[in-house]
Amino acid sequence: MSETEFPRGLADRLRGILIDADYTVSGVRDRLGDAAARALAREELVPALRATGGEERLGLLLRLWWLQSPIPARAARAVLPVDELAEAGLVTVEEGAGGPVVRALVHLGPWDLEDGRPGFVVSDPKVRPGSGAVPRHDHVVGAGNASATLSQLIVDGPVERALDVGTGCGVQALHLASRAREVVATDLNPRAVRLAGISLALSGVADARLAQGSLYEPVEGERFDLIVSNPPFVITPDSSRYTYRESDLPGDTVCAELVRQAPAHLTEGGWCQILANWVHSDGDDWKDRVGGWVTGTGCSGWVVQRDVQDPAQYVELWLRDSCEHGTPEYTRRYDAWLDYFEREGIKGIGFGWISLRNDVAQDATVRVEELRHDIEQPVGPYLPDVVDGAMTALRLTDAALLSAHVALAPGVMEERVGRPGAPDPEKIVLRQQNGLRRVARVGTVEAALAGVCDGTMPVGPLLDAIAQLIGEDPAVVRERTPDALRTLISEGFFRVAR
């Protein structure tokens, strides 16, 4: 983005004004209060407007940038460089009922960054239900729940080079800036590229590179240590409506292509992490479908399905997203969308994430699973351990496993369920207190191993001792235990010490 589009000096001054007024996530939360914040979550503005009345600086900034309410020009000029912001296209000055007012042309919101610095995200104003408006074709959506999900997923740095594909308002590029020496952010939508540039400038990120283009086209021939993407993954019959959520590729192809092309743009050991939708159909299992995207890439990784919606739920979600509920077009679009799903044999749509590590290995494996329960956030710090566990379990032969030194993973607890006074429990469960919080039902041998393994002795001799204690043949225990233990290693209950 050129200096003429959004001057660096103006960005620095506006950033200083926002921080000085405590226009931060915590400052906004405190200023609004719980009741107004809950009302905003329900798309009700009145409590927030009442809470931000008057001409105090933070209240003025909240009304202007967050609530999209015009403020008196006199009060605005006392706080902001209005003329320069108008020239840059962020505000407009117009005549109101009581005199000149300043109206925001963008939404400017605070955002927390990992390194403790305040960040700011610039997007198009949110189109609210009942307003009678729908988003423009090149609408740039602000940071929301999906943005937060992806930011919690990103592996820790530092890395040399990072890429944000489909940057939108630039929120993921802001997170990458705290991890990478060099950040590149791309988007097909030129308006998104412009607003992302303003987000980065206002957040004090001065050296990110922005480029317009589809998928990996703007970075052809380049490699990165970390690639992230919250792509336009919505599965729809009409791909030409909104660039922020829909691509021109059919079905879930855009997610498949991001995955398939990733290895060509990753350094060895580099990560690609994306949010995705995928099709559920009668013809194939979703695990086979998504797993097939990764087959042959040389990447190990982790695919997680967090939710599944039936076609009607899915259509309603995205028609609400574009504020079409209650409009004359609602029924027609709803019906056409369901027709499309029927033609394509789509019975449901899965939502989740895909994390790949470029191991350049023939035996690379990707764990594909469904996790609906709450897990520890952020995921990024322990995500490599999840992938390592799956790779280790795959590579261990029975003989290697019996010779390995295994330790119980931190935070694993044992639960026994049985009748009081009974000599043996009816059920033994291992439960992770942190991380993925998995639960595994285990047998007596695995439970006994969990109680004694600390990484100092090989598995084989430990199993021999356990077999003697429970009165079983050590050879039989050695033969039947590796498969169960391999699964427990893959799921993170045990770790191979060395």
From TrEMBL:
Domain (Methyltransferase small) ranges: 148-277
GO molecular function: methyltransferase activity
Membrane-spanning ranges: none
Annotated DUF7059 domain residues: 21-96
Superkingdom of this protein's organism: Bacteria
Keyword tags: Methyltransferase, S-adenosyl-L-methionine, Transferase
InterPro entries in the cross-refs: DNA_methylase_N6_adenine_CS, DUF7059, Euk-Arch_PrmC-MTase, SAM-dependent_MTases_sf, Small_mtfrase_dom
Pfam families registered for this protein in UniProt: DUF7059, MTS
Cited SUPFAM superfamilies: S-adenosyl-L-methionine-dependent methyltransferases
Keyword Secreted in annotation: no
Family: Belongs to the eukaryotic/archaeal PrmC-related family.
PANTHER family linked: METHYLTRANSFERASE N6AMT1 (PTHR45875)
Protein name from the UniProt record: Methyltransferase
Taxon lineage: Bacteria, Bacillati, Actinomycetota, Actinomycetes, Streptosporangiales
